[in-house]
Every structure is written in structure tokens, then in C-alpha cells.
Amino acid sequence: MLNKFTTSVNIIRDEEKEINYIPTHNAIRLASQIVSDFKKGIRSFNIIGSYGTGKSSFLLAFQESLSNRKKYFNVAFLPNQEYGKINIIGEYRSLIDVFIDLFDLESKNTTAETIFSEVFNRYYALGQNPLLIVTIDEFGKFLEYASKNNPEKELFFLQQFSEFVNDTSHNIVLLTSVHQNFDAYAFSLDYTQKQEWTKVKGRFKEITFNEPIEQLLFLAAEHLNKLPSSDRENTQIKEANKLLYDSKAFNFNEDYISEIAEKLYPLDAISAYVITQSLQKYGQNERSLFTFLESTDFAGLFQFKQLKKGFYSLPEIYDYLTFNFYSFLNSKYNPDFNSWKSIKNALEVVETSFETNLSDYSKLIKSIGVLNINTGAGAVLDSGFWEKYSEKVLSVNNSKELLKNLVDKKIIVYRNYLKRFILHEGTDLDIELALLQAENKVDNITDVVTMLNKYYNLHPVLAKKVMFEVGTPRLFEYKISHFPIDEIPQNEIDGFINLVFNDKDILDEVKIKSAESQEAILYCYYKNAKQIKELLFEIEKTRKVIAENENDKVATRELNNIVQHQINLLNHKILNNFYGTNSEVVWFYKGSQLEIKSKKDLNSKLSEISDAVYCNSPIFKNELVNKHKISTSIHVAKKNYLKALVTNWNKSQLGFPEDKFPAEKTIYLSLLENNDIYLYSDKISDIIKPNERNRFNFLWDESLNFLESAKIGRRKVSEFADVLSKRPYKLKQGLIDLWIPTFLFIKRDDFALFSNNGYIANLSDEVLELLIKKPEDFEIKTFAIEGVKLDIFNRYRIFLDQTTKEKISNDSFIETIKPFLTFYRDLPDYTKNTNRLSKEALGIRSAIFLAKDPEHTFFESFPNALNFKIQQIQSSAEKLQSFSIKLQDSIKEIRNCYDELINRVEDFIKSDIVGEDFDFEDYKNSLQTRYKKLRRHLLLPSQKIFVQRLDSQIDDKKAWLNSLVQSLIGKTLDKTTDEDELLIYDKFKSMIMELDSLTSLSKSDFNEEKEDVYDLQINTFFKGISKKIIRLPKEKKEEVFKIQKELENVLSRDSSLNIAALTNLLKEMLKNE
């Protein structure tokens, strides 16, 4: 680092200063990687590391090495290289503006090319073997600015600049450093901008720069580099090292610690680990470490070396951290806030509880507290450890007595399960006694499986090898049971690791079941079920104590720690004892006992099982799609792909641009083109045969088999999905949702598709989307038409004046059924509803009306309607000919049905009204002449309308007759029913009779202003018709009304009797005249 220590390094400010950098193994490796990658053609590098890890110091030392001022690294990019540099430090402004200021350019006229030209000029000016290093430290500030200010412009410049640098014909290197991942700066961008951001990121080689603890210890050792001054100190260091080894407090390399321990003095090995780990957690790694090493405050290392002897140990570290990180340690953001508060409280209790040895008590409290914060659960920090540490490191000789006093005062307490002392936070509950008493309150564990499922949540295991080789993520779920299972994996789960727990010896049963099972199940039989039962009992005991003391927060927290420890121990018994010759489990697959030595072995075995069980699964390396649930962005890409499939299937690469690769094009390439499935090509036949390289041939054949099975009867699309979601395929839902619509579209001419609403003639992208979402609502029926069936089909086509076909497709079915449907659609309502047809014609009409499946209509409904069996037609050419003739006759009968109604109405008029067999013009003229003298202005509205239509000059017979019928019954003939026909005849007759009578009155030459005229007719079987025209002057109306009233007074209440009486009276009066 720098000779004169500073808390930060500035690559511009400090470039002329003399530095004393200590290259770590990690830094040397990083420098070598940059040089090596440069020689492979990589020019842009992005160094990612947390705050204070020494990125700026590394960049400065890297430049020192290049300029040959000091050789920290081997940076021989080129032989006889002429080195030059451009240094930039990040600011919250545009990188473009920084370059403009750097090169003193005019901002208005400056383009990206102008800036690149200036960079190139500096590069060119270096000489014959130029090497220009452009270093941008704190690059994240430029990225942060770019994400919030005109990101399109800023990103495009970054893209252009990286592409300029990446030109391997020049030796220009771009080194940038950031504190976080490139993507983290793109948080506020929209989807399109994030895509562009990712594109720019891809032009940089990312290098991680985070120093591990061992490297920080190395830096500290190299910085201190003070060897012990006496043999006694040397002995103390070795004794302190042994304490570290025996305690298992940290993961370390024993030889490495032995090598640097002397240089770390006066830090003991445990304290060195604690301070570096604490500074990583609360400070800024390397920067905070050197701040500590150079600190001159009262708690720092410098003052200690000046004033004291012995080790700078855990109590001193506590003092240093609380002095220098007081605000953070006492804030809510400190993850260890409660632990630091407990140390502070314990120290306060010590001051009020003891009068002597206060310093030694404080040392023990500080040491116990700080070490508990920084060590894992496996550390052994019992009384033996603390007695030795106190004596060898803390110079406290009576620690055994002091520890006992602290326990007696309930300031600390020893926990067997943790193998350590902890600071007591204040509770009256004797936890050990409470747990002992809980044994009588908790039932013995009898159902291990239920309890394990209650407390034990094992995450599925991803089989890595098969995912890498095939592209499909195979997830194996842990399944805990009493007996071996034989379940079919569903949804995203591809297999099971069946953990079998049983008190009885069922080893042979597990072996037999594994031999019988065809599914992807790896069986694991536990021999230590009893031990696990005991652990579960301990967990239940502890939870019982928690339930009884839930208001005691301190005790509850401590008991929860005990439960967590017990669960961790349960994990160890269940999972960590899986492997090796001393494992407590027996593995089985396919009836064979397996030896699984490690976690890696287990994962490899899961991949082998996946390969064996799902042997026909295609190789499909598209991680965005080949998963159970795809992202929202891929849903959009899938929709775009399906649209391109339907609209551009006959274009190269579905019409996607050659120079762009949107997600939908990636789907096309990985699903179709990479597997030799071409929808359109001038160079191949119509036969599609996927290659065997990616095993899509198995999937293609299985899909063809499904279509073949749909020849017998309809099959739901969901059944197709079910086939693909089980062995030997077990495709992920993302792939199923692409393959099914793609395959069905390719084979769209070979089947008919049906939904709940009936037959679907055309496969649009909307239909394919619905088909994916609700496959259970769709069915397919494959065309099975050959031999005589083909002859029958071609008879239909001949009947329709269409060309015959050698092979039937969906299009030809649509082409053939369409005229029948159009024929029915254009029929009058009368024809669609009348029963005045032959049985055969009624059957044909019904078959067309109910047609939902063209194949069923042609080969079942039509023959049945004409009393033919398909077998008969298939077995006899004469029957086929007869069927064809009957079909034509029935269609003809249906077509002429309405004309026959017209004819019957016309025959009625000629026979019952006119009385002569006239043609249309003659009987129309006859009726018009018949009512020429009719006084039309005196007619009722219905009579007037009828006469007007009778007199109309319409030349079309159907239109003229329809107009008459409409005036009589309110609807035209094409809208009538069979019942309406008789009504038409009755109303027609009545209207003619009324008009005839009114015509007779009109001929009587009466004066309508002075008199009322009545035409009276009485008709009986015996005496025939009695007729009388009555003319009455209008002035006699009052007299008529008076007689009418007198008659009404003597009539009875029975209207029939009254009518009969009045009729007889009229007859008598007519007879007497």
C-alpha cells in the first residue's frame, strides 16, 4: 500500500507518489488473467469488488508495473511494449463530457468518432509497439448517471467505445472498476433499455476482486512483519496457535497459520481472525484493515506496542471496535446488535457484582462476547479452552474461579449443545431443569415420518450433469416415508430421493420395490431411525418448554437457539451421513445397492437416473424456455413466435431479420432450425425428419403416434401434453407449450381441431394461444381416409364439381364441406323447418345442420340419413353408386321444397278461388278484374291492404304471392311453418268471400251518404243459402236502435241460444218477403 498511509487511493492524484504495495496471490492471479485474456483477443475488462477491497490500489500498482517503476506484476502484454495511459475517475456526469474536457474539445461539434480519434492519436504516438491502457476507476458513477440521464445516448456511446477498444488490430486496453454488478445500475430502466444494458455488459470481461480472509491476514502479516523478540514470545505464539487449532473456531490451513503467525505478532491467531472478519463485516475490508494497522488512537495497535507487552487479544479488539465503529454497532442496521448490547449489559453487571478482579472479569466477558459473534456453531469454546486462552493470551491465571463466579452470578451460562459459554441475558427459568421435566409431558415419538415432515423441509436437488448435457433442469424431491414409494413425478419435479424410515428391518422390501419401479426414484433406507426418533423427541421437549414460557422473551430466544441446534443436528444425521463407507444409510436403484461416497456422487447418480428414465427427452439448450414456469418476457416472446409461425411459415427463418436475434427468433432456432425441422425450403421434400443429434426424432415420432391414435376417435390436446410430461420424455412445461402448437401447426392438414364451440377450420395464433392455456378444451381427430372412403369422399367432390384428391387434408375437407354448409345457410326458414320432406331428405338436412366434424358428417351422418351403412358402401360399387344418386335426390328435394310450397299455394288459388287452370298472369288479371267495381275506400284496413297487393303490378310470381300471404298472416311464405299453410288457405278464402260480398254491395248502386247497406246471407244444409241485400235510410237509425234495445232486454244470458233465436227470426222474415 502507500508508504504514508491514507484511507483511500486516487489513481490520478497518487500516480507520481512512491507506493509500497503488497501484491496478494489474488491480485497476482488477477493481473495474470488480464494479460492472458489480452493475448486471446479480449480488450475490455470490468473489475468488480466491494468497497475497500483495494481495487484502486491494484490499478495503481498495475500501472507502476507497466511503467517499470516497480515490478509488482508480470505485465508483458507485448514484446518491447511502449506503454501509455489515460486515467479517469468516475463522476456523476456523462462520460462523453469527461472525454471532451480531457481532450479539450468543443462540445457542440464533438462526436463519438472525434473522441475515438483522440484516443487513437495518443495510442499511435507511443511508437512501434504501442500499448495504451485506458483506466476508469469508480466506473459505476458513470453507469449510475447513464441509467438516469438519456440512457439511450450514454449506453450507445459505451457500446461504441467498447467496440472501438475491442478491435484486436490495436493494442488498446480498457480497465474499469465498479462496486457492484453491472446489472445493478440498470434497476430503473425499462425492459428494452435493460436489454441494451445487457448488450453493453457483454462487451466487458468481468473479473471478481474480493480478498478472502487469508489474503487479508497475509497483508496484515506483511505490513506488521515484526518477528518475536524472545523465545518466550515464540513459545506463546505457538501455544496460541494450538488453541486456534483445537478450538475449531475458524476454517483455516494449519500450515499457513504457522507460516504467518510470527509476523502477525502481537496479534494472536484467534484475534487476527476476529479482527479481519469483523472489519469485513463492519468496515471496508482491506481499507479498514490498514486503518486498524496504522491507527494511533488509545485502542489501536500502535499505542499497544508502545505501552504494553504480550498479545493484542480479544479484549483489545473489543475496545478498538467499540471506539471506531460505535455508531454502527449501536444502530439497528448492525446484524449483531443484540450480541453487542449483551456484552455491554454484562460488563455493567460485572461492575456491580464484584469488587475485585474487575479487569480480569471484563477481559473474560469481552473475549467470550466477541468470539461468540465471530465463530460458527462447530467451535469448541468450553471451560478448558477459556482457562488456557486466559492463561496463555490474556495473562489471567485464575480463570477457572472467575468463570465459576460469573456462572454463579448468572452473568454467563454454559450450553452443552453449543459447547460454549454464552452471555446470560436475564431469565429466572432453569432451562436444563425445565427440559428434564418436559420428558414426562411429551409423548414418545411413534410416527417418525410425520414428525420429520413437520420439522424438516428439504429443498429439491438439481441434477447438474444432465442439465449441462441435455439442457433440461431435472429436479429430485426428497420424499420421507415409512415404506418405499412408487409415485409418478408431477409438474416441475422429475424424480424422488425416497428417504425410508422404519423401526423394522424392511431392507429387502426396499430392494424389491426399487427393482419394480419404473420411475426416477432413488431409494435411501435409514439404519439409524432410532437415533433420529430420539432427536425428534428432544425437539418436542424443547418446543413444549417454549410453549410453557412464551412470555419469557430471553428464555424463548435461548430455547429457539436450542431447537435450531437440534434441527441442525437432525440435518447432520439425515443428510451428512449419506455418504461413504461409514454412512448410516443404504442406497438402492433398480434393485441394486449403490455406494455413494459424496455429495458429488449423489448428484452424478441423479443425472444417470434422469438419462436412463427420460432417455427420449430431447437435447434442448434454451434455459429461458426449458423450465416449468417461464418469465413474463418469454411469454411475450412465445406469443411473437406463434404469430410469426402462423403468418410467416413460408418465409426463411419465419421472416425474422438476419442480423438481429430477439428472443422469439432464438426460440425458432433452438426448437426448429437446429433440429433440421424446416417449415419452408426449396431444397427439400415435404417430408420432415428431425435429426438424431438432439434426439428430437423421438419427440417427432411420439407426436406422430399421437396423431395416429386420433384416427380411431377424438383425443384431447391435454392428453398429448400428458404423454410428453411423463417418461420417457418428461418435458418441461415451457417446452411443451411451444412444441404442441408448433407440431400441430406443421401437421395442420392431417387432422380436424375441435373446441367446446365446435369445429375450428383455421389455426390462427390466437387459437394456438388458447390451445396452450386450456388444452383440455380442445380435441383433435386425425383423418383416416383411404381406399373406398377416399372414393366416397371424391364422390362428394364430383357432386360439387370439384377435382378429386389422392390424399385428404384439412383444407380439402374444408373445401368440400363448405358448399354443404353454404347450401344450408341460404335455405329459406320454411325449408329448414318443414317436415314435408322424405325421411332421407330430412336426414340429410339434419346432418348438415348438426355438422361439427366433416369426417363424421361425410362418413357417418350422410350414409345413416340415406339408410346406408359405411360397410355396405365400402363393399359394393353398386351401393356407392346408389348412395351417390340418393344423396343427389335428397339435396334436390331440399332445394326444391320451397318452390313446392309456392306451387301448392298457386294451385289453391287456381282451383279454390279462380276455378280455372290459368297461368300466373291470367289468374292475377282474373282476380284484379273481379274486384274492379269494389268501393275500396269503404274497406277495412286489412281488406284494403290485401286488395292493394292484389292490384300490384309485380311481375314475379313468388313476390306477388308472398305479398298476399304477408297481408293475411303477417309473414311471407319463406318464413312460414307447416301449420301456417292451412291457415293461409282459410284466411285466403275468408278474405275472398268478404270481398265478393262487398263487391255485390258495390254493384247495388246505393247512396252511401244517405243509406246503410247490409248483405245478409244465411246458409243451412237443408235449405241452402238465403240472401238479402238490405238498404236502410240513415234517418231511421234511431228507430233501429230502439228496436235493438227492446230485443236485448228479452234475450237470455246464453249467447248461443240468442244467436240461434235471432237467426231463426231472420229466416222467417226472409221467407215471408
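The above is record 1. Record 2 follows with the same two-line structure.
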Amino acid sequence: MNENPSPEQLRDASAQLVDQLAPKKRAKANSAKIKPAKRTCIMVLGMHRSGTSALTRVLNLLGAALPEQVIASDENNANGYWEPTSINTLNEQMLAEAGSSWDDWRPYDVTKLLEERREFYRSEIARIIGQEYGAAPLFVIKEPRIARFAEMYADILQSLGIDVRYVLVSRNPLAVAASLEKRGGSSQGFGMLVWLRHVLDAEQASRGKRRALVSYEAIVENWRPCLQKITSTLSLDWPRSLDDAQSDIDAFISSANQHHRARQGELDASTTVAGWVKDSYAALQSMERDPYEQQASKTLDRVRRAFDSVSTTFGDAVYPDLYALNAAVAAADSRIQRVTEKSAAEIEATKQTLERQGIEFQSREKRLQDQLKKARGLANKHRKKERHLVEMLEQERAVAALAKVGQLAEMRDDLTSMRRTLEAATVGNATLSIAQTERQQLEIALARSQAEVASYTNAIREMRNSTSWRISGPIRAIKYLLINPIGSVRALLGFGRRAARRLPIPLHMKHSVKMRLLRYDVVRRAGSLSREEATGSVASSSATIGAAPLALGGSPSVEAEYIRQVLAIAKRPAGTDLDYVPRSEEVIDFARSPLKVMAFYLPQFHPIAENDEWWGKGFTEWTNVTKAVPQYIGHYQPHMPGELGFYDLRIVDVMRQQAALAKSYGVTGFCFHHYWFGGKRLLEKPVRQFLENTDIDVEFCLCWANENWTRRWDGQEQDVLMAQQHSPSDDVAFLDDILPALQDRRYLRHEGRAVLIVYRASLLPDSAATAARWRERAKAAGVGDLYLVAAQTFGILDPRPLGFDAAIEFPPHMGMASGLNGQLKIVNPDFRGQIYDYEELAASYAQKKRPPYQLIKTVSPSWDNEARKPGSGHSFYGANPASYAKWLRSACDITINNLANDLTQPPVVFVNAWNEWAEGAHLEPDRKFGYGYLHATANVMRDFIAPDPHLIGLVEKSQRAFRKRSSSAIVLHLHYDDLFEDMRENLSNAGEVDLLVTLRRDAPGTAAERVLSAFPNARLSYFRNRGRDMQPFLQLLPLLLSEGYELACKVHSKKSPHRRDGNALRSSALSSLLGSREHVKQIARRFEKDRKLGLMAPAGTLLDLGELERNILNRSWLDRLLPRLGMQAQIGRYDTVFPAGSMFWFRPKALRLLADLSLGPDDFEEEVGQIDGTLAHAIERLTAAVALHEGYSVGETDSR
């Protein structure tokens, strides 16, 4: 404990000084200021983060000298500390030597220093003052630690013949604690105690001395009165007057530098701040008015006695452990520094080596460029041959759809012969390998057509249910022919002509149908579509068609095939699929999501020597993928890659593309399968490249595939190619092998622990002992503890007996689903595999009860290992982006609920997998669904993103401030907020109408800012991303009705990424609806003139819903909605129009029925990139029909 004077002595000393000063003040009230001593030191005392630096600089601007060497500014104090570096270092040393520190709130006990050490510090302080300040007559010294031993400094200064004046700077302790918390992470309570120690010691040391007290808040608010008080109280003559220094001080003092503010009322009202702190701060405020106020001194004495009586006891229980921890951290930092320095030397040596190699590489590159030029010339020749081959194969594709699976062998032999010829011509030309692989797939595509029949069979089933569909007659005719296979060819041709005449499509399109169908031999062989073309068509057919399993009259599937060809005309570009989802242009910020999505990642997409030996030269996973063919109707095979192509993971840019793609769609990172066999690594190059290229900015973890490597691809023990051994020494060796990954900053951690997954933990002889060894080795290596996760495979459930922390699902392992072999049409008579129900599999995982251990949920986009086990693979029927999205949402909901009940639950969901192409499980884009699975992932995860607080605030503010000012309104759904500036002029053309804007729930706050900046009276709201623009519109429609709006315009930020003309469609619609102020007035006048006009669409956008391609995919929803709208008579009949693009002017009353549907976000489908067939599309189709049903008319704007 310090030997402090008693409260009575301090009180008497203060009173004596006051009595001594009072006569002088009375005698010299109007006299000049006291002449300062030859040298004067202004000692600035106060707590850290209390404004001492700011005041020190201001006193310097008035002429008080600063030390020669000051601490440099940093991110914690950009305006500078203005304190001597040497004093700071010495004070730290003096505190530490006495077993204390700057943040030690115990009294500083100088007696813990030996007498010779005290003398050493006194002499050092005197030396430093002379060195730093020289002979300056007036100087300022500030270093917050001085408050702990201010009396020693004052004694030294006085011994040097220097007069000492004190300035105590105080600040609201709430603000100080907040600043400390931001700088160093200390708690509010801890910061308050440190504040209390500093202000008590500073006040005690300066009591009875010439001093002034000011607050940092007062300096920032108005510095001049504070400086005038300091000047008069301390009787100082500044070398520079306040007026002369005003501009410099104004430029330096800024409220922008006051990052933490707290009002007196907040301190008084706080229930977490000790009474000692509140009383002490109130006393300091009193002393700002009178530095010697007696009651304030008594208060501070009382607090000091109470604080000193307990601080040592409690401090002794806290600080020893804290110092030990700090020492351990310092030691670790020192080790890191040594390693860093060593690594820097090694890096420099490597750099020099690389520079030498670079010169060699440049020479090699030139040679390679010459070779590449020659190779490209050869490649161009072969591309021409390939294009010719593609054209031939495309012409045969429809024929292949009608061929028996057994007959494919003969066709495949012919194509194989052609392939071998091409291969012989391209030996040694590696640049053509991918093109050759794709060419091989053209023959496989012949079988795909057969599988596509299934989806159109479903379409026919819906058409048969309608009693008034205009082409039901031709369909019944087809049925008649199928039941009576010996019917005449003339009857068949009659059916074709009648079907063509009665199809609800324009004549030019019917002609296009005929021309397209005549391309196929099967149609030409059956006969011409008209008498006039009969001779030419038959004559033009030179091909001989054998018996086909789907020939006309052979099975009901041919009915679907015929209609499929009809519907394909003018509907989609050649070679694309209705299920295809293009790449999204959206930029979604997933940083606010409480969940992470990690995808398992297979590295077997590059050749290795072992695979060359086991499976053949150049083997990669693509070798398996390209062999698959459909085994049953509706079987999606082969899975062909999209944007990324048949990539090679030896190219690091491929991994960069994968990471960027994953991140943009909400996938946090990858879980790499790791193959390690007793010191031997396989397929390690991708992970090694990932570690070397730290710019690939996604998280990752490892899953040890610790089973034998076998020839059967299924984990069985027969035909073992590389055996897995387990021993104590292997345990340590394995952990050492993956240490570089565990130490990577990108490695996935849970509660600070590196996540390590083991695929078959039950194969470890003593898994608990292995887990213990791994943890011990990881801690010794500085990684920290591990979070060990056992995959639920081959019977593993509870991870705790294994010594692991959690389990992770690994579908389809441990899942349940019904077999569907007997319910589907299998086209391969030798098929030995199993077909299961995907949706049942997903449901089985969702229905599992929460186990008594930590379980990480995993979903799978699909699963089909037909590529690895031809003819005997296991697959899950019904997998598509929509059913996957449903499973993913269920897994996320379960994880969120578990987090609410158990904060130790890992906030992550896994996906199996990112790129398991040979198992049909991949998020990567393919040629059928495109980016559908990634689109589904992003749109499920965005629902869990916490709304931007700034967005919430602006939306709530806009709704409170909104006032109806017009009888007309614009309803804008701003999904793509980047388009707002493009639409702003159109919105302004509406004049003084009200603007109601809906945003997506995950929109940034800046989007709301831009809207309100342009339209301050706009009313904002936000919604989940369901139902496109229709769901938000239906939420606002009741508001339009209740507020009595007579007219409104519905627009939205339409992009239509599946169409090349999407931007043009939006611009055209906006121009037609809001093209100019005069144009808008004309539209308003049309509504005023015709009181029964209910809806007006942009010119050319009212389309006929009766046309087949505009209702076929929406019939299910249309026929469910019509009864709810009171329009039963129209079920199955769609003789109406609709505003394509869903942008139009309308009377809210005309669409009242839509509001009565009371549809919410959950009524709409998951957003997976659908281009048609959803509830939102069906409502779009019915908007005009509803207005017409209510007795209103509909029309279009004038062309512009």
C-alpha cells in the first residue's frame, strides 16, 4: 500500500492554500498576472482516452514546448499522442518492476522497488526531461501513467528548479470505458475501475497545488472558455495569444474525433456503473468550477478509502493470472516473430531462385508459344470436322429417341470408329482433349431424348383433364391409334393435318412445325403432312429406319414425343432446356447471415500416377462421368458440366473460379476430401495449390477419407488398391501432415477450434485415444484445440464414445426412402440398380428428432452413382433445384432452432457436394439445370440474412413520415437496386404522385438511402424473396384500397436474365408507362375519360392467354386460383389476355379480387430461377382477367 496523507491532512492543506490565495486575489484583483518562474512545466494528468492528448496539443499551439521524440499516431489516435516515447517506456518499466501495469486498479506501491532502483528511476526521469525539453522556459508534459506517481515527477521537476502547474482532464467514464473496449477489448466494469484509480491518484497528487480542472467534452464543445480558465487559474503568459492560435486550434479540435459520447443522464441512469464512479465524476465536475471545493474533496476521500480497502484484495485475485496469460501471449508472439523472420529469409532465397527460373521460363514460354500456334492451326482444322459431325448427330437425335436401348451398341460402334479416326489425327495435341470428350457425349445424348419424354407425358395428362381444350380432339385421335396399332397410315396422316390446322398458333409457325418435323426420317417414312408434299417428302428420304421401341403406335410415350416436338417450336433456343437457370447478376451480401454453408469437395479432377496405373492413362473423375447413360424414363444422365467445363484442377485459376462462384451464391467454402495412407498422400495437389494461393478467399476444412482405396468405388474391402493403416504413430504423423492447413487463416473454426471431419471414425482402432493424441499435438503446434466431427456413415451415430465433439450427416448414408423400380419405366432390360424417392430421403432427415449430441445437418442436391456402376447404380428420382431447396431450408431451420436452444451448436450446414459429378451430386452448373442448384442455395440462405439495421431504420422512418398527397401512386418493386438510377427519370415523370417502394429483405441500407434521397416522401417496405414482384405487390394492394387511391402504376426492376432482350423489355415498358410527363398525363386523362377502364398495359404486351405455350405450364395454378376468385366458369378455358411483364397502370378497385386472395410469402414457391409455371406467373396471367370479370375494360398505351 502507498503511504498516503490522511484525509484530515489533505483537507487542512487545501484550506490553507485557499486561505493563502484569497488575500492575494483581493489585493491584486485588477493587477497583472503573477510573473512565472524562470521555467514552468504544465503537467497534464488524467485517465487514458480522456482527452489528455488533445489538450496537450492545444497547449503546444499556444507556445508550450513538446518533447523532441513523441509517440507516433496510429489507428487508435490519428491526431497524435504528444507524449515522450522515452517517458512512456520508462513508466511501463517502473510499473512492471513493482508488479503493476497501466491498467492495474490497485494502489501503486513504490516500496516494492529497492531504494537503489527508486534512485535509478529518479535520475532517469531527470535525464529524460533535460534531453527531451532542453532549456525550454515553458513546456508541457503528458503521459497518462504519470498520474500513478505524479508526486515523484513533481519532486524531480522542482529539484531541477522548474515550477509545476497541473491541469486535470476528465471525461464521462461511460465514454472512456467504451473507448477502452474498442481499443483493447476490456469490459465496461474493468474500464471503470481503471478510470477511478487514475482520477483518484491524479486529484490527490495535485490537491493543494496550483491546478485547473477541465473536461474533454467542454474542450470539444467550446475550447476558448477552457483555455481562458486554465490561463487565469494557473497565471500563465502564453508565447502565443489565444487570438493568434485560434485558427490552428479550430482546425485541430473537432467533434469528429470524439468517437464515443455519453451524456450525464446516461451515467446517472446506468444500473451497471458503481456509485463510487458516479460520485467521483460528480466531484470532478464540481472542481471544474472550483478546484478546491471542500465537499468534492470529502467525496473523493471517502471513495478513495473505500476503494483502497478492497482493490488490493480483489486485484490480487485477478492480476497474477492476467499477467501470466499476457506473458504466455507475449512468448507466443515472440515465437511467431522468430518464425516470421526465418520465413522471410527463406522467402527471399526462394524469390531469388524464382527470378533465375523466370529467365529460363521465358525462353521455354517462347518455344511453347510457337508450338501452341502450330497446335491451334491443327485444332481449327479439326473443329471444322467436329462441327460437321455435330450437325450430322443433331439430325439423328430425334431418331435416337425412338431407338431401342439395345440397338445403341451398333450406333455407338460406328461413332467409336469415327472417334478413333479423329483421335489418331490428334495424337500429341493436348489442347483438343476436352473437345474430344465433348464429342464423345454426342452419342450419349442420343439416349437422353428418350428420358426427356417423361416430362411431356405429364403435360399430356394435364391436357386430357381439360374438356374444352382446343386440341383435345387430336390427342384422342392419337389415343385411338395407339389402342388400334393396325390403323391405316391415312388415318394417321389425317390426324396430323387436323392437329396442325387446330393448333392455336400462327400459320407461319405451323409451317415451321412441318419443316422441322420433315427433318426427321421417322416422319418422312410415315408419310407427308400434306398431299402436295407427299411425292417430294418420300423421295427425299434415303435413310432406312429399323424397328424402334418408340415407333408410332408402339407405346403411349410416342404421344408425348410428338407433342414435345410441337411445343418446342419457337419456345426455346435450340439445345437449351426449360429447366435451365442462367447465371445471376445479383450481388448478395451474405456476411449478416448467422449460418454458413460448406460444400464437400472432391479433388479427383486431375491425373495422377496411381490412377494411371489402376484405371488407365489420363484417368480423372470425368472419365467416369462421360460413360453414364439413362436407365429409365426420367433418368437424368449423363451429368455434363456447364460454365466450368471439363476442368483440370492442376490449373489454379479453376479453383479461383470455383471459389468466386461459390461465394457469390452464398456457399461459404469447401470441405476437401483428404486422402492420406500412412504417410502417402493422393490427389493432394488441389489443396496444396489452395494453401499456396491465399488470394482464394473462401473458408475450408478437411475430411479425412480414412477407408481403403478399392477398385469397386464403394468402400468395400475387395480389390484393395491402397490399404489404410492406423497406429499411434500414424495418428501423430497424420496430424503433422495437415498442420499447414489447420494453421491457415481461412480454415473453418467453431468457437476457435479447427473443424476436422473423419469419414469413417469407427475404423480407428481406439478412436478416443486417437482424438486425444490429435488434440495434444494440435495444441503443441499452436493450432489450439480441435473440433472433431464424425461422419454418420456405416452405422456411426453418437460421436461421444469415439472421443469426438460432434457428428455430421452424410446423405444418403443413414437415410430412408422407398424403392421406385416397380413404378418407373426402365428402358435397360439388364438394369440391376436401385431407384429411390429423393423427396422421401430429404423428409427422413428433416423428421429426425434432435439427438443428445451435437449434429451438423447436411443436404444433397442429388445422388446417382450410375456413372461409377454402369447398369447397377443407385439413384434418387425427383431430385431438382426445387426439391433440394426445400431440403436445404429444412436443414437451416433445424440448425437455427438448435442454436436458439444451444449456443454451442455449430452454425453451419453442409452440402454433399460441390463437385461429385460421378455421383450426380454437384452444386456446380450443368447443362440441364444451369445454375439452378446454386440459385436455390442463394435464395434459401438469403432468407436467413439479418436485415441491414440501416435499412430497417430507414424503412420505419419512411413509414412514420409518409403522408398521402395524391390520388395516384406508383408501386415499385426494386429487387435489383442497382437499376434505381436507370429508372429514376421515369419515376420522376409521374409528377406529384405517391411512391410506394418495396425492397428485398436482404437489400443494403444504401438502396433505401438512394430512394429517399431522390423521393423524400416515398414509403418503403421490404419482403422476403418469394413470388418475384407479385408477392410484394399483393401485400401493398390492400393499402392502395384502404387509402382510396383511384389510379396506380405497377412497375419493377425487371432483368429477365434468361432472355437476351431483358433490359430492352424493361426500358420499353417503362417508356410506354412513364416515358414523359405529358405521356403520363395522357394516360391519366384516358382513365378519367373512361371510368370503366381498369387496366392499361404497355403497347404490344397484352398477349393471348389462350395460346398453348402461354398456359400449358400454368394450368395447375390457374385452375386452382380461378375458383377462389369466383371465376369457376373459366376453369380449363383461357380466352383472355394478360399483361406480359406485369407492368401496367390500373384502378386498384379493378384488382380487388387479388387482394382478397390474402396470399403471403409462404404461399409462393421457393425461388430457384423458374422462368414459368409458378404461382407468381399464374397471377400475372390473371390480372387482366380479374379486371374484366369485375366489369372493367383493359387496353394498351399508345405506341411511342
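Residues 294-401 form the longest helix (108 residues).
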